[in-house]
Amino acid sequence: MRSTFSVIFYLKKDKVKKDGTAPIMGRITVDGT
Questions:
Q1: What are the two backbone dihedrals, phi and then psi, of residue 11, each rounded to the nearest 5 degrees?
Q2: What confidence tens digit (pLDDT) does each residue in 15-25 have?
Q3: What gap in Å lies between CA 29 and CA 1, rounded to an integer?
Q4: Which whole-number Å values give the CA distances from 19 to 8, 15, 26, in the listed order?
Q5: 32 near 8, Cβ under 8 Å?
Q6: Cα within 13 Å of Cα(3), Cβ side
Q7: Under a CB-based contact definition with an 8 Å cutoff, are residues 23 and 15 in contact?
Q8: Which residues of 7-22 are buried (b: 16+ CB within 10 A; e: fewer)?
Q9: Is this model's pTM higher than 0.85 or not?
Q10: What is d(CA 1, CA 4) in angstroms, rounded to the nearest whole number?
Q11: Burial class (CB in 10 A: 0-12, 13-18, 19+), 4
């Protein structure tokens, strides 16, 4: 049995802080779409 996974990172630009930083959200998908 073979399993596949993917990791996706994206910036939450709507929650930018006063110092110019923004949180990074991550998504991990295993055996799915």
A1: -85, 140
A2: 888 998 999 99
A3: 17
A4: 25, 11, 22
A5: no
A6: 5
A7: yes
A8: eeeeeeeeeeeeeeee
A9: no
A10: 10
A11: exposed
- C-alpha to C-alpha distance for 20 and 14, rounded to whole angstroms: 12
Contact 1, 30 (CB under 8 A): no
Task: Taking residues 23-29, report their average pLDDT.
Answer: 93
Q: Which two tokens stand for residue 15?
A: 């929650």
Q: Residue ranges of the domains in the chain?
A: 1-33
- Report DSSP letters for the chain, one per residue: ----EEEEEEE-GGG--TTS---EEEEEEES--
Would you state the structure tokens that stand for residue 10, as one six-digit string?
A: 């994206």
